[in-house]
Structure formats: C-alpha cells, structure tokens
Amino acid sequence: MPSSKSQWSLTERRRFLRSVWSGVGASVSLALLPGRELLAAPKVGANPFTLGIASGDPTDDGIVLWTRLAPVPSEPESLGQSVIPVRWRVAKDAGMHQVMASGIAAAHPALAHSVHVEVRGLRPAQDYFYQFSVRGEESAIGHFRTAPREHEMLRELRFAFVTCQDWPSGYYTAYRDMLRSDLDLVLHLGDYTYEYRIDGTSRRGSSVPAGFEAETIDLRTYRLRHTLYKLDADLQAAHAKFPFAVIWDDHEVANDYSGSAPEFAAPSPEFLARRAAAYQAYYEHMPIRFAAASKPRAELRIYRGLRYGRLAEFFMLDDRQYRSDNPCGDGEALRCDAANNGDYTMLGREQERWLARRFERSHARWNVIGQQLLMAELEHATTQPNWYWNDAWDGYPLARKRLLQEVVGSKLANPVVLTGDWHSTFVNDLKVDFKDPNAATVATEFVTPAITTGGDGTPYGPYYSPMIPFNPHIKYYEGDRRGYFNATVTEKYMRFDLRFVTSVESPGGTGYAERSWVVEGGRAGAQPA
Ligand code: FE
Ligand code: CA
Question: For the chain, what percentages of helix, strand and coil (3-state, to nearest 5) are there?
Fold first, then answer.
C-alpha cells in the first residue's frame, strides 16, 4: 500500500524549504513539520470541506488529490497559524472499502490550509475513488481514472475541454450537463476565475455572498475569489467526478496582461507582486503538482505534458507568463512593423524549446495542444484591412509561425490545437501562411465556447460573424451561445461534440448537442460528422 509519507525525497524537502513563495511548495509531508505544531492544531469546527475536493493531472501510476479546509469560507485565515493533519484514502470501490493507498497530508497555513497529495504507486487505466477526513469530518467521495501504461494503445479516450467561467455571468449549466458523461479528463483552458469587483449585477438572480465582492488585487482577495467559485455545487460535482488538467489565462491575474506587463502599461514591480499573489492563490486552489522549475516569488511553472499511452499526448501551454509585451500594442490595431521582429515570443524561449523537444520525442497517435489564445488568423477585414486582435496569436505572428513550423518539422502525428478565451466557438484549419490560399492545413483548431462569460444573449456574433468569410480557413464560427466540447479519441479518428446550454441565467438550464466534427487520422482538417 503506497503512502505519501515514505515518498518525499530529499530534493522535494529541499524544494519546499527553499521555496519563498510565501511558503508555497510541494505537498508538505508531516515528517517535515514539528510535532508540537500538530498537537496544537485547533478544532476545525463545522464542515471543513465546503470547497469540495478535486483530482488532477493523472499519470499511469498517480494523481494529484486536492482539497482546502475552509470551515468559514469568507474568512480564509479562520484556521489560524496551525498546521492541520488531513487523512486521505484511495480505494478501488465507491464505498471506500478496498483501500489501495492512504496517508496523512498537512494543511499548511502558508498555503491557506490547502492540501495537495501527489499519490503514486497506483495501477494504470483504473478507476479509483478518494476521500479526505479531518477530526472525524469526512469529505465527499471523488473519482478519477489513471492513464494507461506508456506503450499501451487505449481503445478510446474521452475528455471535455472548457474555458471562461465568470461567476456573475451565470450558472455552471455546462458542468451539470457534463456530469451525464463518462470522461477520463477535463481540460480547463483558462479564465477559471475573473478578477473584477462583483456588484449587484450578478446574472445568477441573487447577489454575491457577503465578503466576496472585492476586486482581486492581493493574496487575500485572490483567495476569496477562488473560494467563491469553488463554493458552486455544479463545479464541485464536476471536480469530484473527473480529474482536471488546468492552465490559466489572463483573468486569473488581470485582463490581457503579458508577462510582467499589465494591459496598456509597462512592466512594473507592483504588477509582478500582484501576479505572484494570483499565482499563489491559483496553486492553492488547483489539483496541480508544484514544478521544481518554478522560480520563487516570480514564476510558477504550469506548462506540462500528459500522456495517455500511445493513443494521445497532451501539451498544456502557458501563453501568458513568459510572453513579450504586445509588439503592436494592446487591443485591436493595425499590424505594425514590430510584428515582423522575430524576437517577440508568446511562449518564451524556454517553453518553446521544451515544446520542440516534446514534439520530437512524441510517439503518440494524436498530439493535442491545449492552450489559451486563438491561433488561427482572424483579420478584422470588415473593420479595416490588416486589423487584428493583438492579445491573441495574431499579435505575435512570427511566434505562431515558429510553432507551426515546429509542428511540421518534427512530423508531429495528428496535431490538434484546443483553445479557450474568445467566448465563441471556432473550428479552424491552421496553416503556416494563412494568406497563401494553397497552403496546406498543418493542424486543426477547436475553440471552445465559454462556460458562462457573457451570459445569455448575443454578445459576439454580430461583430465577428461578418469577418468570417474573409478568413476562409475558419470553417465554423458561433459567438452567441455558451457551452463546451466533448472529445473522443480513437486510433482512427478524433470526434468533437459541441454542446451548448439553453441558459446560464436561469437555474434550470440544460445542455443539448449542437453539432459534431471528426478529424481523421493522417488528414488535418475537420469534417462534419
Ligand atoms: Fe474569458
Ligand atoms: Ca482570456
């Protein structure tokens, strides 16, 4: 029976102790903590599992389990400075009788009493159930499935991909709909939380609970924002049922920032301090491993790969943290001369090199790039020729060309790009040169609609729809409805099922199938299914 206790290597201990992320580090083993602190742990009081539980980043032998103790959700510091031992168990059955792994993890005050357990020693391609307990209080029981062994060809892999779940924009109807499926994984492509002040205009028909209104600017307010979102019952249910692989976009920090530069401003130490607080709160609330490559107080490395045997490999990217400030300025603008300077980067050189190496080494039948920003060109031709939205890859055309040339040069098998951010649905052919009508399609892009952002109604269609005919590589566009994609991967094809929801502004909304596409192995480009 593997236990987290025995698995903390010296490197991991050093990593934690060295970490100056105000105490952010790899999961804290009890062995690291003075016993006196544990004995002094206060009573936790009422249900400490108000924020639910989650699992994430499955491997062929492991998983990350997450929870955060929050008996008083509006008071992130209510548990004081004590380290609190939390018991965890992983079982083969939903009744938690056949326990396969268990241990004690520490909920540390420096990490807002969050718990991250990096479980190893599990079997590949198996269903597991998990539960936390503290002082006799038990959490809900969660479920996850491990990935298959490295050389295994899985018969079928099913996952959903989602983005943009602004809380005041509406209910998480999409997550409730998703619960009807049997999924191996949910990819969250960013805008998990939004930074804005929440006033009385919530489209949920009720006002925000007291204490959660403030704009997020520091560690306390970022923690409160994550807390508010995690209190949602539909989001909790999705996390309990499926493992997630999450990456952030801009709003987990602040709108349209680039690296160390906030929107419409130069890089500043003040913004970097805000970003560090946001990154810490993100780590505290997500089922992710703490990467050793993270740089204390400056960088939290979240780009990473996930393998599903020989069937699929996922490359989860970070389009925000390392990118250059927009060469042609923020927002919409004419493409400027600076866009032809190859020094500008979206991923940063280190992430670009990492991705190129992973491309070269991949033996997967399907190579899925999960990332934030629209990769296909979208010339705003109806506004003005050569006019682009600079926050997306259109603001970094040479960085995009480098990435797509790497896809071609490495002979990456069946590349598919999954994108969030736009609050719209797109299906696109990706080309090294979008202006060349004879250019080959080198990859297929699916942009998933928002879970809620924008609410019900028609916020984007009227503006963008007239531009689409001027961009013939865009095969489908819909800007007015909310929802998500389900994907099915087999050796022969990948299938994409677009699901919209009837409403995010009334609590009784439901999901429905809109349409489906298939990408056949060996042939880039989506076909109607
Ligand atoms: Fe968004
Ligand atoms: Ca965004």
Answer: 20, 25, 50
User: Is domain 34-145 in CATH 3.40.640.10, yes or no?
Assistant: no
Q: How close is the Cα of 479 to the center of ligand 2, in Å?
A: 15
CA of 164 to the centre of ligand 1 (A): 4
The answer to whether the CB of 189 falls within 8 A of the CB of 448 is yes
Do residues 195 and 480 touch, judged by C-beta distance below 8 A? no
pTM: 0.94
CA distances for 262 relative to 252, 273, 319, 373, 497, angstroms: 13, 12, 14, 17, 36
CA of 162 to the centre of ligand 2 (A): 12
Tokens of 512: 């429905």
Q: Are 186 and 177 in contact (CB under 8 A)?
A: no
Q: Which helix (H) or strand (E) is 187 found in, with range?
A: strand 185-188
Q: Which one-letter amino acid corresponds to residue 89?
A: R
Which residues lie closer than 8 Å to 220 by C-beta, 6 or more apart? 76, 77
* Ligand 1 geometric centre to CA of 169 (Å): 11
Read off the pLDDT of residues 28-44 as tens digits, 9 standing for 90 and up.
444 344 444 444 445 56
Please state, in angstroms and rounded to a whole number, the distance separating the CA atoms of residues 385 and 396: 17
Nearest ligand by distance to the CA of 371: 2
Is CATH 2.60.200.20 the classification given to domain 157-528? no
**What is residue 459's predicted lDDT score, i.e. its pLDDT?**
87
List the chain domain ranges: 34-145, 157-528
